[in-house]
TrEMBL record:
Gene name of the record: LOC103487893
GO process annotations (BP): chloroplast accumulation movement; chloroplast avoidance movement
TM ranges: none
Coiled coil: 148-194, 220-352, 390-424, 455-517
Compositional bias (Basic and acidic residues): 639-651
PANTHER family assigned to the protein according to its UniProt record, in alphabetical order: HEAVY CHAIN, PUTATIVE, EXPRESSED-RELATED-RELATED, PROTEIN WEAK CHLOROPLAST MOVEMENT UNDER BLUE LIGHT 1
Stretch list, region Disordered: 615-634, 639-732
Name recorded for this polypeptide: Protein WEAK CHLOROPLAST MOVEMENT UNDER BLUE LIGHT 1-like isoform X1
Protein family membership: Belongs to the WEB family.
Length: 732
C-alpha cells in the first residue's frame, strides 16, 4: 500500500503512535504507517486502524476538540461502506535532537561494547561447536573400537572356518581313496562275474564272488552317500565363508568410515581451536585497542587542559609585557615632550638672555660674575655624570653583544644536536619496522607449530607464546613511547630555542632603545654645552664691553631663580634617563642569564636522551639476537620433525602386510596383544615433542627474562625526565 508521490500529503491510519520530525520519508514506515509525501511536524494517534489505498482520492473532514484537531480521512470504498478513519494531530513542539528521535525507536547502543559482546558470543558459539565436535569424536572413536572388535571376531570365525575346511578336505581325500579302492574291488568283482559266466570257476567260487560283489556294492553305495554328504557340507561351508567374507568387508568399510570420520572430526577440532585462538586474539586486540583509545582520549584531554593553562599563562605574561611596554612608550613620549619643551624654553631663555645682556650688561658686573661661576659648576657636574654614564653603558652594551653572540652559537649547537637526534630517531624507526616484520614472521612460525602439535600442548604453548608476544609488544610499545617522549622533548627544545631567540631579539631591541636614549641624552648634553658656551661667549663679550664702557648688565632675582630651576630640572631628567637605561641593562643581563641556564638544561637533557637512545638501541639489538636464536631453534625443530615423519613413513612402508591371510591375521593378533600389553607407540614421540616445545619456550622465556631484567631502566629514565620537567617549571 504505497501512495502516489504526485498527490497531496495523504496519511493512512494505523494502531500506533509515531513521531515525525522535520517531515517523513516517502515510503513504508514502521508500525504499519505508509504515506506518500512529507508530513507536518506532529504525532498521529489513530482510533480505527483500517487501511485504505492511497491512490483513491480520500475525503478529509476536520473538527476541533480542545487543544487537538480531529481529522477524518475517508476512502472511496469506506465511503460506500460507511467506514471512518479518525486521527488526532497533536500540535506539540517537534523533537529537538536526533538523539531524542533515536531514543524513541530503541535507544542508543555503544558499538564498541556491542562489538566486544558479539565477539564474546562468537567465542561462546565456537566453544559450543567445539564441545559438539569433541562429543562426535568420542562417539566415532567408540564406533571405530566396536568395528575393530567386530573385525577381530570375524577374523576369528574365518580362522575357524578355514580349519573346518581343511579338516573336510582331509576327509574328502580319505573318501576319494576309499572310492578308488571300491572301484578297484568292483572291477575285480566284474572280472570274476565274467569268469563265472564263462564257467571257468567252481560253484564255491561263485558264492564267494557273489558275496564279495555284494560287499563291494554296499561299500560303494556307502562311499557315494558319504561323498554326497561331504559335498553338501562343503557347499554349506562355502556359503558360510562367502557370508563371512561379506561381513568382514562390511566391518572393514565401517572401520574405514569411522576412521575417516574421526580424522575429519580431528581436523574440524583443529580448525575450531584455531578459530578460537584467533577469536581470543581478536578479542584481546579489540580490548587493547579500546583501552588504548580511552587512554589516548584521556591523554588528549589532559594535554588539551595543560595547553590551555599554558596558553592562558602566556597570554597573561604577554598582556603584562604589553602593558609594561605601553607604559615605557608613554614615559618615553612624555620625556620627549619634556625635552622639546625644555629645548624651546632654553632657546627662548637664550634669546631673552642675549637681549637682556645687551641692554643691561653695563649695569651689574658683580651679579654676572656670580651667575657665571654657578653655571660653570653646573656644567662641570653634568659633564662628569654624563661621561661616566656613557662609558658604563658602552661597556654594558659590549658585554650584552658578546652574550648574544654566545647565545646564538649555543642555539646553532642545539640545532645540530636536534638534527642528529632526528637522524637517530629515523634509524630507530627503521629498526622498529624490521623488528615488527620479524615479529610477524615469528607469529606465523608459532601458528604453524601450534597447528602441528597436539591440541592440549598447542593450547599450553599458545598461552606461553601469547604471553611472550605480549611482553615483546609491551617492550616495543615502551620503545615507541620513549621515542615519542624524545620527539616531544625535541619539540619542546625547539620551542625553547625559539623563545630564547625571541628573548634575544627583545634584548637587542631594548639595547637599541637604550642606545637611542643615550644618543638623546648626548644630544641634550651637547645642547647644554652649546648653551653654556653661548653664555661664556656672552660673558666674554660683556667683559669686553665692560672694559670699553663702564655700564653693566643686571638680572633680577626672579629670573635667576627661574634659570637655576630649569638647570636643576634638566639634571634630574638626565639622572632619570641614566637610571632607566641602567635598569634596562640589568633586565637584559637577567634575561641573558636565564637563557644561559635554559641552554645548559637543554644540553643536559640532550645528553640524557642520547644515553636513553643508546640504551634503547642496545635493547633492540639484544631483542634481535633473541629473535634470531628463536628462528634458528624453529628451523632445527622443523628439520627434526621432517626427519621423524620420514622415519615413520619408512617404518610404515616396511611394516605393510605382504603375507598370506593366516600370517596377516597372526600379525594383527600379535600387534593387538602388544597394544593391549604396552602403551601406544605414538606417546613417546608426543612426549619428545612436548619436551622440545618446553625447551623452546624455556629458551624464549630466558631471552624474555633477560629483557625483563633490563626493564628497570625505563622507569628510572621516566623519573629523571619528570624531575627535570619539574625543575624546569620551577625555574620558569
Amino acid at each position: 500500500m504505497i501512495g502516489s508521490e504526485t498527490e497531496a500529503p495523504t496519511i493512512i491510519a494505523c494502531n500506533a503512535n509515531i513521531n515525525f520530525e522535520g517531515g517523513g520519508p516517502t515510503g513504508p514506515v514502521a508500525n504499519g504507517v505508509i504515506y506518500s509525501a512529507p508530513v507536518a511536524n506532529g504525532v498521529i494517534y489513530s482510533e480505527n486502524p483500517n487501511f485504505f489505498v492511497t491512490k483513491d482520492s480520500p475525503s478529509v473532514f476536520s473538527e476541533e476538540k480542545g487543544n487537538h484537531v480531529a481529522m477524518e480521512v475517508l476512502s472511496s470504498k469506506n465511503l460506500k461502506q460507511g467506514g471512518l478513519n479518525k486521527g488526532f494531530i497533536e500540535t506539540k513542539a517537534p523533537i529537538e535532537s536526533v538523539k531524542a528521535a533515536v531514543s524513541k525507536f530503541g535507544g542508543i547502543v555503544d558499538w564498541k561494547a556491542r562489538r566486544v559482546h558479539s565477539m564474546v558470543e562468537r567465542s561462546k558459539t565456537v566453544d559450543e561447536r567445539l564441545e559438539g565436535v569433541q562429543d562426535d569424536i568420542l562417539h566415532f572413536r567408540k564406533k571405530s573400537d566396536q568395528a575393530v572388535v567386530e573385525e577381530f571376531q570375524v577374523l576369528k570365525e574365518l580362522e575357524n572356518t578355514k580349519k573346518r575346511i581343511e579338516e573336510l578336505k582331509h576327509a574328502l581325500e580319505v573318501a576319494q581313496t576309499e572310492e578308488q579302492q571300491a572301484k578297484q574291488d568292483s572291477e575285480l568283482a566284474k572280472l570274476r562275474l565274467e569268469e563265472m559266466e564263462q564257467g571257468t570257476t567252481e560253484e564255491n567260487d561263485d558264492a564267494l564272488a557273489k558275496a564279495q560283489l555284494e560287499m563291494a556294492m554296499a561299500g560303494h553305495a556307502a562311499a557315494v552317500s558319504e561323498l554326497k554328504s561331504i559335498k553338501e557340507e562343503l557347499e554349506i561351508l562355502r556359503n558360510e565363508f562367502a557370508l563371512l567374507v561379506c561381513e568382514r568387508d562390511a566391518a572393514v568399510k565401517n572401520a574405514d568410515d569411522a576412521l575417516a570420520a574421526s580424522v575429519e572430526g580431528a581436523k574440524a577440532l583443529e580448525e575450531l581451536s584455531m578459530e578460537l585462538v584467533a577469536l581470543k586474539q581478536s578479542l584481546q586486540s579489540a580490548q587493547a585497542s579500546h583501552l588504548e583509545a580511552e587512554e589516548q582520549r584521556m591523554s588528549a584531554a589532559m594535554a588539551k587542559e595543560q595547553d590551555c593553562l599554558k596558553w592562558r599563562k602566556e597570554l597573561d605574561d604577554a598582556e603584562e609585557e604589553f602593558c609594561r611596554l605601553n607604559l615605557q612608550v608613554l614615559s618615553i613620549e612624555d620625556l620627549k615632550l619634556k625635552v622639546d619643551t625644555a629645548s624651546s624654553l632654553l632657546s627662548d631663555l637664550k634669546a631673552e638672555m642675549m637681549a637682556y645682556m645687551e641692554s643691561v650688561m653695563r649695569e651689574e658686573i658683580s651679579d654676572e660674575h656670580v651667575l657665571e661661576g654657578d653655571v660653570s659648576e653646573i656644567v662641570k657636574k653634568i659633564d662628569a655624570a654624563t661621561l661616566s654614564a656613557v662609558d658604563s653603558k658602552k661597556m654594558e652594551l659590549e658585554e650584552v653583544k658578546l652574550n648574544i653572540e654566545k647565545a646564538i652559537a649555543e642555539v646553532e649547537c642545539l640545532k645540530m644536536a636536534a638534527t642528529s637526534l632526528k637522524s637517530e630517531l629515523e634509524v630507530e624507526k627503521f629498526t622498529l619496522t624490521t623488528t615488527k616484520k620479524r615479529e610477524v614472521e615469528l607469529d606465523k612460525n608459532m601458528s604453524e607449530i601450534v597447528v602441528q602439535g597436539n591440541v592440549k600442548e598447542a593450547e599450553e604453548n599458545s598461552v606461553d607464546l601469547t604471553n611472550q608476544l605480549k611482553q615483546a609488544e609491551e617492550e616495543v610499545d615502551k620503545a615507541k613511547s620513549i621515542a615519542q617522549m624524545a620527539r616531544e622533548e625535541l619539540q619542546k627544545i625547539k620551542i625553547e630555542a625559539e623563545q630564547a631567540k625571541a628573548e634575544s631579539k627583545a634584548v637587542e631591541s631594548r639595547l637599541l632603545a637604550a642606545q637611542k636614549e643615550i644618543e638623546a641624552s648626548n644630544a641634550s648634553k651637547m645642547l647644554a654645552l652649546s648653551a653654556i658656551q653661548a653664555l661664556q661667549e656672552s660673558s666674554d663679550s660683556s667683559e669686553t664691553t665692560k672694559e670699553d664702557s663702564p655700564t653693566t648688565v643686571t638680572i633680577s632675582l626672579e629670573e635667576y631663580n627661574e634659570l637655576s630651576e630649569h638647570a636643576r630640572e634638566a639634571e634630574e631628567q638626565a639622572r632619570i634617563k641614566v637610571t632607566e637605561a641602567i635598569s634596562q641593562i640589568e633586565a637584559a643581563k637577567e634575561s641573558e642569564a636565564k637563557c644561559q641556564e635554559m641552554l645548559e638544561e637543554v644540553s643536559r637533557e640532550l645528553a640524557a636522551r642520547q644515553e636513553v637512545l643508546k640504551a634503547a638501541t642496545d635493547k633492540e639489538s639484544e631483542a634481535e639476537e633473541g629473535k634470531f636464536a628463536a628462528e634458528q631453534e624453529l628451523r632445527i625443530w622443523r628439520t627434526e620433525q621432517e626427519q621423524l615423519r620420514k622415519e615413520e613413513k619408512s617404518s610404515q612402508e616396511v611394516a605393510s602386510p605382504t603375507t598370506s591371510p593366516r600370517t596377516s591375521f597372526e600379525v594383527k593378533e600379535s600387534t593387538a596383544d602388544e597394544q593391549a600389553d604396552s602403551p601406544a607407540p605414538e606417546e613417546p614421540s608426543a612426549k619428545e615433542q612436548t619436551q622440545k616445545s618446553l625447551g623452546r619456550t624455556e629458551t624464549l622465556s630466558e631471552t624474555k627474562d633477560g629483557k625483563k631484567k633490563k626493564k628497570s631502566f625505563f622507569p628510572k629514565m621516566l623519573t629523571l625526565l619528570g624531575k627535570q620537567k619539574s625543575s624546569r617549571h620551577k625555574s620558569t
